[in-house]
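so my prof wants the structure for this chain in the tokens format not the other one, which i didnt know existed until like an hour ago. anyway here's the sequence
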Amino acid sequence: MSFSLKDQAAIDKARELLSEAGIWDVETDLDCLIDRYLERRCKDRARDEFMLAVHERCNRIPLGHIVGAVDFDGLPLTIGTGIFIPRPHSQIIHKWLENESQVPQGATVLDLCSGSGAIGLAIAKYRPDLKVTCVEYDDVAFQYLTRNINRLANWAIKAEALKADLWDWQAFSHFNESVGLIVANPPYVPEQQTILPEWEEHHPYTSVYSGNDGLDLTRLIIKQARQLLQLNGWLVIEHGESQGERVRALFSDAGFSLIRTIIDEDISDKTGSSVITVGCKLI
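here's what i got, hopefully its the right format
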């Protein structure tokens, strides 16, 4: 099989890297990786696997769980069954950071409910000066989080991973009044609400639902943010469009200022709107 000069150069470099890493069967692993990412060698098998994937998708298995990957604003993230698949809607957070925020150079950032690390890693991509820590508690999600952090470090995208339960305030005590930005896409669907089977049946329950009104974890994050943020620090939380008024009230009750809800129509779709509420700790 012939390859382009660029592909052949990549294969040669891959062989060198696999050898240096101590991989015990370099050529077999390399053949598998070439077949997966550069050129399918057996077209019949490729068609069979394609139809298996189609049937799984028809059974409403999420696409990301079928292919084991998702592209989040140019970041190729590894994901799988048992983890929440980041949606394009969450790009609104780093778009806000790029275009509207006043988060200073070198600030500490916490990405809570990080899952695969999509939001935190996107922030690290666009603002490499920031010190990003992605926080996740679920064992499966944390494995994917650390894997994506280590993977994208090869692109000079840097973030830290912290395994911590958001209900354990002591786990965050070393961040008290030192954080410049907290971002979160917590579960926000009310427990009795019926949603598409991709999320209702094939995502972890705790990554989707959060109490009777969907805001239990949002309330906790807002309370924590008052303790963790420094003066002039920002809190950004993703939520459902119908929850905007209630979330703004929670921000206000906690003493935040400059509160507003932002909807991005460009990255909204039939599964829902892209919505965040932002607020600043001024006192």
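also thought this was worth mentioning. Strands lie at 69-72, 75-78, 108-112, 131-136, 160-163, 179-184, 229-238, 257-269, 272-281.
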